[in-house]
Amino acid sequence: MTNASLEGASVHSRFTEAEIDALAMGMRGRVCLPENPEFDTARKVWNATVDRRPSLILRCAGAADVMRAVGFAKAHDLAIAVKGGGHNIAGSAVCDDGLMIDLSAMTSVRVDPDARRAWVEPGVTLGGLDRETQMFAMAVPTGINSTTGIAGLTLGGGFGWATRKFGLTIDNLVSADVVTAEGKLLHASDEADRELFWAIRGGGGNFGVVTAFEFGLHPLGPEVLAGLVVHPMEEAGPLLRQYREAVAAAPDGLTCWVVLRKAPPLPFLPTEWHGREVLVFALCYVGDIAEGEAAAAAIRGLGKPIADVVGPHSFVAWQAAFDPLLTPGARNYWKSHDFDALSDGAIDVVLAAARDLPTPECEIFISHLGGAMGRVAPDATPFPSRNAHFILNVHTRWRDSRDDEALVEWARKVFQATAPFATGRAYVNFMPADEAERVESIYGPNYRRLVEMKLRYDPGNLFRGNQNIPPAAHPAAASAAQ
Q1: Which of 326, 409, 338, 316 is nearest to 363 (CA)?
Q2: What are the start-end ranges of the E strands in 237-362?
């Protein structure tokens, strides 16, 4: 559908055909109504449990389009959802009956290797960013799945293989262009709109729509030491306790995550192990390959692995290594905790759950953090869990909607059983849509300041299709998840 081609489209009762025509004529991007062939594709998100139908979708081409979209939503009292990569577990990129602002066509990346800067639009995926920055052997520390969108990842914090060395994604954000609830475009940084800049670095999409990011870059790649070490689940108890000691002594350049799941049919695994429960150490060293070999020796020396495929890999390829296990179209539900330490009690509960995985695609993973992330003050950004050394994610994944209740209940039981050993906080990007009651505790002492920023930049709670921070005493607080 072109801007001038809205013939035959039914129009929502809140706005007229003339208003839609005027909106379309003013945009570089496209207005997409339910009758358009691309509508169902545009509204889909990564998590197949989310099936919502907005009244219209605005496929934006730039900041001016976003400003028009926000103005249109306000004028017609429409709920707003903002789609970058559409990868969020809660499905916040799409809403029912409201306006979906689709940024996925905004995919420009510009790299200045001399200044060590990258300017990135919000529709860019991590893979797209890596391909540009790695041409100069540089990187922004981001996540671990190449199809994740940079916008949502950044606004919630952002961590992955380079976090222990270079900090969270938000720690490397230099500035951002933000369309606020007033429809204004602000440039937020440490020099301008500092309070807004503070709020978007971990406060999610509560304060506006980011139309451009400026990141600092670090030397990294093009090769890193990375790979998997696979062990039998039967050996997981002593291995996890030894792992805990090994990573406590690890240099910042080394990150090692734990994955507990049924083994997929990977070519390097003996066929008799396919489908059986395994413990996987997934590790990456950011720095010199030879130094990485020495740093990883303690973990690679644990036990008698089924397979060890650690070696030099292209960083771009390593960032996409888990993509086949996270393809769109499956039904997903996550529950997550932060841990200051990996206690014996937590290990015992996690192992019991890992021996009872309800589908072959379910997994429990433990992210290894600390390092540079922990050397930033807890109030420097909204992200408060700077002392967390591990993040547990119970990743439940299945295909049949008839299994929804059982699979969600299994994840909740694991979450409840591990709660006594956790900090009470979690990573906001790992929170499903039904955890609104956790938001205040997640941000801890930073929550009050976030509410103040919400009152300043979005007093009407226009941006509430997220893990919402409602402005104090606002009526929308009671229905923030709607």
Answers
A1: 326
A2: 254-262, 277-285, 307-308, 311-314, 331-339
- How many Å from the N-terminal Cα to the C-terminal Cα in the chain? 29
Question: pLDDT tier at 13 (50, 70, 90 boundaries)?
Answer: low
Helices (H), 118-258: 126-133, 150-156, 163-166, 194-200, 236-248
**Cis peptide bond prior to 222, omega within 30° of 0:** yes
Q: How far, in Å, CA of 175 to CA of 192, rounded?
A: 9
Tell me if residue 316 falls in helix, strand or coil: helix
State the Cα–Cα distance between residues 172 and 129, nearest whole angstrom: 14
pTM: 0.94
What is the percent of the chain with per-residue pLDDT over 70, rounded to a whole number? 95
Q: Give the integer Cα–Cα distance in Å for 363 and 394.
A: 6
107: left (phi over 0), alpha (psi -120 to 50) or beta: alpha
Tokens of 453: 């920023």
Q: Report the half-sphere exposure of 67 (CA within 13 A, side-chain side).
A: 12
Q: Rounded distance, CA 416 to CA 24, Å?
A: 49
Judged by DSSP in three states, 28 sits in coil
Provide the sign of the torsion angle of the four alpha carbons 118, 216, 46, 185, taken in this order: negative
DSSP 8-state code for residue 125: B
- Compute the average pLDDT of residues 140-152: 97
Strand, helix or coil for residue 280: strand
Question: SS3 for 379-432, per residue?
Answer: CCCCCCCCCCCEEEEEEEEECCHHHHHHHHHHHHHHHHHHHHHCCCCCCHHHCC
Overall size of the chain counted in residues: 482
Longest dimension (CA), the chain: 70
User: Which letter does DSSP use for residue 471 in this model?
Assistant: P
Q: What are phi and psi of 393, to 5 degrees?
A: -125, 120
80-135 per-position pLDDT tens digit:
999 999 999 999 999 999 999 999 999 999 999 999 999 999 999 999 999 999 99
- Confidence class for position 19, pLDDT limits 50, 70, 90: very high
**Amino acid, res. 60:** C
Domains of the chain, each with CATH number or no CATH: 17-102 (3.30.43.10), 109-219 (3.30.465.10), 223-430 (3.40.462.20)
d(CA 90, CA 465): 10
* Distances in whole angstroms, Cα of residue 125 to Cα of each of 63, 146, 173: 18, 6, 16
Concatenated DSSP letters for 358-381? SSTT-EEEEEE--GGGGGS-TTSS
Contacts of residue 244, Cβ cutoff 8 Å, sequence gap at least 6:
341, 342, 347
